[in-house]
Amino acid sequence: MTNAIGVNDRVSLVMSLRKKGIGNVEILRAMELVPREYFTHPAFRDQAYYDIALPIDCGQTISQPYIVAYMSEALAVDNAQKILEIGTGSGYQTAVLSHLGRRIFTIETYRELHAAAQQKFDELELDNIVTRVGDGFEGWREQAPFDRIIVTAAAPEIPPPLLEQLALGGRLVMPVGDMRGNQKITIVERTNKGFEREQVLPVRFVPLVRTHEDSA
Ligand code: SAH
Question: Residue 192 sits in a domain of what CATH number?
Fold first, then answer.
């Protein structure tokens, strides 16, 4: 890691997120605490604090900081909550959530990405994160219910097991839509009347894929 990248860049990033409308101070603080240059691919480290998505291994991406902040805000997390994340990827979103929630359970389909993310959580001593290789379509039955569920890959529908694993009063945030770019961040609240949905921001995410042989 070069000395040229670090805390000053994080402060500038946080200021730009505020300008773009992220108002929650807890989220801004969490974004300031996480060194994004740890999670980017070494070849893109000099762009770690640009507010853009960047390629990581296995043909996947590290999400744009604004989207990470936006989804974290939409999730309305507090430090008493148990959170499920589908799509660990680089681990950047997970690291932000680790400063907001009580415990984060995160699932990744690619073994290689899972191992790299786990190593980063160890190095940064983020010890409230539990990782697993698995198929996010199925959720994490043994640990359910979850107060919050965040999915960082898109699908045309919300996988039914995830809705089942959401606690009463819980909230799920996920990009829902097709792969031609018609996706919207969707917020679901589970109330005693059922599931209430709201579509908010148009986005473009990589697809949630069915777990295949060579990823496990
Ligand atoms: N939040 C991540 C975004 C990663 S991109 C970050 O900021 O880095 C989405 C991730 O979802 C990819 O790593 C992809 O491999 C993973 N993924 C796709 N389908 C999945 C599935 N069925 N189960 C678990 N993870 C999946």
Answer: 3.40.50.150
